[in-house]
Amino acid sequence: MVNTVDKSEILFLFESKYTIPNGDPFTGEQRYDEETKRVLVSDVRIKRYVRDFFIEQNLILKEKKYEVYVFNDKSQIGEGSTESGSSARMQSLWADYYEKKPGKKEIGAEALNLIKRCIDVRLFGGISTEKDAAVNLTGPVQFALLNPSLNKSDLRIHQNTSVFSSSAEKSRGAIGTTTVVPYAINQVHGWINPYSAIQTDLSNDDVKELFSAMWKSVNNINTRSKSNQSSVLLIQIVYNEPNDKLYGTDKLITIESSKEDEQIRSMDDYTFNFSRLQEIAESSKIREIKYYTEIPEIKETIGKFGSKFTEMSI
User: How much is the pTM?
Assistant: First the structure.
């Protein structure tokens, strides 16, 4: 495959108001850096947003526009099977795309082609542990393991009651306690690697689908802990060469406010400082900086930064 995907970095900003942007799976509490007071969003949370969006679109369209690898699919596994989740998913893909499963000589190469039918594998990589058909692909799109918010925040304790009791013997509803984030402007930092893109057959169309899914998934999610979130700004910094790299791209955007960070409750309370983003565009390593926003003030500001800044579509 000829490489057509450019090396680039991603900055994705979204705001959260009295939500839990990314709860810890063990405690349910918001991931949080107590030393810096920054709210944290993990790479896994962002990838789940993207995968869930693709799966939901299939349901809405009533057709399988997107083949997604990572979800709990046991449709081809018999009761009591001890197969791994990845092996179970591969069984479903074999059944969908092959009348007869390939023989031992061909199955390795065919398994690689099969798994790359899935858009999340082309983006994020994937593994198959199926016997004689093992696959291990590193994803060309990666996000920072933990992404700190641009502002500091004090978590707020929130208590609520449930109509249902915690056990049949009790007559009253249960009481729950959790913490919520009053306000956070979250920044997610990512990378697109052109060398890994060759291995997974990632295309520029796949990258466009990724950006659309990131933007729309945050806006559309309607769970109790995440419904009050909004996408703010998406930036793709495109390098001239596949080995180019600039330091500190996660620090290109900051906020300024007359209030303490912990007092911020909306975008009315601060302004963005894009001066470093504008400066980095002058580097010979940068070919283009693409951006997307639906906020007129941000669009007007970035639109004046020069010819290297181009608006993308979602």
Answer: 0.92
